[in-house]
Backbone:
């Protein structure tokens, strides 16, 4: 068994996330952390295990120490300069390192997994770091170790002008650039463990991780560490079984998404919920039928955005009952969240980048809900319950209550906009079901939709949403599909249908019933758009700039290269400014300078990235405000 020592020098106040970092340092097998700091009296170190060696050191003593060890003076006008000093730590602190096989440096903006077990297969290498061969080669500042010997501990002295570079007031990348070059010149290889950190195949820094039982998991794979380089874009929370990290997004409170499912449908609901995590800045109310869902442990979601309600209905896995309880759910949500606008969505949907634009329909709300519009006037159920019969469930129910004329096209209950004013409507839908269920063969065969359509016709509630979903395709650009749905090839579509006029009007994919169908959607659609956490958008008051920073490379994306950035003032409902004619593939950073904070009066802005040629929105998120 080999022993490893990781060295850190930190001056000034410790960041809030340090307590989580420290938790993952504790009790690491065969790993000691040598931590020099002027904050050694901080109470947080009371939680440090014996493998964490805290040594008091302030900047003045540190500078004197370097002069004594190396024979020249350095200045520390900013503590970021300490990143250049990482390569000298093993030399100047050599008296502390006599009993270690490997030494090196690390950053504190990381959470660790099981360090030794993941490093052990590589502990015959001379240098080990977390670079990769494609995006971030060589030595990376968050972690690097090497064999503990005089040659490697003083290898930095082979760098030309290393003294001048160390004395320079600004960071010179001695740790990540100069040291790598000199190793290459001397044919010393670096063992790259980039596959063991939170960088995806496209170079994107991944946000979501789980630390439990002293191991770190990202996308269900064990990893060495997660480095949170975009700190204001990441949330760390403590859970019953350890720690979790998430993408930290802004959440508006103008409406809630509402959905429900039972345990049998949870695997598909996870895909729908994940699409909301990727594209929505609103909270989601999850009704779990007859069982309790922990959104963190069971669904791997952020509890700030996703709220679970255990809805006891005694459905006993009865498919007929479960599919007919939607009105009960909507009724309960009206009562429970009486001051909110809400949007109900079925669990077999996959939301799009434009889903939050559903707010444009809120001003049409009255005393009844707005339903998604079907393409057809009638739906007939063939061979119902293997009877060989074709039936019209709505006609059966309509005859019961004396409603024989319906609204065309038929309304779909997979996407519904409503608020508390719709409570009487849902109350009556519940009463209809309770009164007439099981009274006649075929009644409620299309579940909740029949009661909804009957009540809309009964009161002549004619307003609706247009068609906001797309079915039977994984290509959202294929608007021709609306004329070629499988179930409509032998049925005339309604003359009153309202189809999406543009791809931006499609808010969701619908009718995914298998894991493969969801996977096909993701594989195609996610390459046509930008997920919220793939770009960080913020206004910095210090620099008076709007920053758009890609968190990875877009080489697998298929959208057009020429785009424009649009900053939209949601409060005043107008475009605030645009950054036109940008090649989205060329650069990692885009910005607009010289924007006075006084001009950003509402603090409620959306950022959209739009294909120049097609007008297709490929990114939509709320703007963050930072210091």
Residues:
């Amino acid at each position: 068994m080999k022993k490893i020592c990781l060295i850190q020098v930190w001056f000034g106040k410790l960041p809030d996330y340090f307590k989580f970092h420290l938790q993952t340092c504790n009790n690491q097998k065969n790993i000691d952390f040598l931590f020099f700091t002027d904050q050694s009296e901080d109470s947080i170190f009371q939680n440090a295990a014996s493998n964490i060696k805290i040594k008091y050191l302030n900047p003045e003593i540190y500078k004197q120490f370097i002069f004594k060890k190396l024979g020249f003076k350095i200045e520390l006008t900013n503590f970021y300069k300490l990143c250049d000093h990482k390569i000298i730590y093993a030399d100047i602190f050599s008296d502390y390192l006599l009993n270690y096989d490997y030494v090196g440096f690390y950053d504190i903006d990381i959470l660790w997994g099981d360090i030794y077990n993941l490093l052990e297969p590589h502990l015959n290498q001379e240098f080990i770091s977390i670079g990769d061969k494609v995006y971030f080669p060589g030595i990376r500042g968050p972690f690097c170790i090497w064999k503990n010997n005089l040659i490697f501990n003083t290898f930095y002295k082979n760098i030309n002008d290393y003294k001048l570079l160390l004395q320079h007031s600004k960071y010179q990348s001695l740790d990540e650039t100069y040291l790598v070059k000199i190793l290459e010149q001397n044919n010393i290889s670096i063992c790259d463990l980039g596959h063991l950190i939170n960088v995806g195949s496209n170079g994107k820094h991944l946000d979501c991780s789980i630390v439990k039982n002293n191991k770190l998991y990202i996308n269900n794979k064990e990893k060495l560490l997660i480095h949170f380089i975009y700190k204001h874009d990441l949330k760390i929370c403590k859970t019953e079984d350890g720690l979790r990290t998430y993408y930290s997004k802004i959440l508006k409170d103008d409406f809630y998404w509402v959905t429900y499912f039972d345990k049998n449908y949870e695997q598909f609901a996870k895909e729908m919920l994940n699409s909301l995590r990727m594209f929505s800045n609103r909270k989601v109310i999850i009704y779990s039928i007859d069982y309790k869902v922990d959104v963190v442990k069971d669904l791997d979601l952020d509890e700030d955005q996703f709220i679970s309600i255990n809805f006891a209905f005694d459905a006993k896995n009865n498919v007929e009952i479960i599919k007919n309880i939607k009105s009960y759910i909507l009724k309960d949500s009206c009562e429970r969240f009486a001051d909110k606008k809400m949007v109900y969505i079925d669990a077999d949907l996959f939301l799009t980048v434009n889903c939050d634009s559903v707010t444009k329909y809120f001003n049409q709300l009255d005393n009844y809900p707005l339903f998604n519009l079907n393409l057809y006037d009638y739906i007939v159920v063939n061979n119902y319950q293997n009877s060989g019969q074709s039936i019209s469930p709505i006609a059966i129910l309509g005859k019961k209550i004396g409603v024989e004329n319906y609204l065309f096209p038929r309304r779909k209950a997979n996407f519904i906009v409503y608020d508390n004013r719709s409570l009487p409507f849902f109350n009556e839908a519940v009463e209809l079901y309770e009164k007439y269920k099981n009274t006649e063969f075929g009644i409620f065969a299309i579940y909740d939709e029949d009661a909804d359509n009957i009540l809309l016709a009964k009161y002549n509630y004619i307003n609706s949403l247009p068609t906001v979903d797309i079915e039977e395709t994984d290509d959202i650009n294929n608007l021709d599909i609306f004329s070629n749905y499988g179930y409509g090839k032998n049925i005339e579509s309604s003359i009153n249908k309202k189809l999406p006029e543009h791809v931006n009007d499609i808010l969701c994919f619908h009718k995914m019933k298998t894991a493969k169908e969801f996977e096909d959607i993701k594989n195609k659609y996610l390459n046509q758009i930008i997920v919220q956490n793939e770009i960080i958008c913020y206004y910095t008051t210090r620099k008076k700039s709007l920053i758009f920073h890609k968190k990875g490379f877009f080489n697998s994306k298929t959208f057009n290269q020429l785009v424009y950035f649009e900053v939209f003032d949601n409060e005043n409902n107008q475009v605030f400014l645009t950054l036109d004619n940008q090649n989205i593939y060329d650069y990692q950073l885009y910005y607009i300078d010289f924007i006075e904070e006084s001009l950003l009066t509402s603090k409620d802005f959306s950022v959209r990235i739009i294909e120049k040629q097609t007008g297709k929105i490929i990114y939509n998120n709320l703007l963050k405000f930072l210091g």
Q: What stands out?
A: The chain has three domains: 4-196, 252-523, 532-626. The longest helix spans residues 266-279. Residues 564 and 580 are 4 Å apart (CA to CA). Residues 532-626 form a domain with the Immunoglobulin-like fold (CATH 2.60.40.3580).
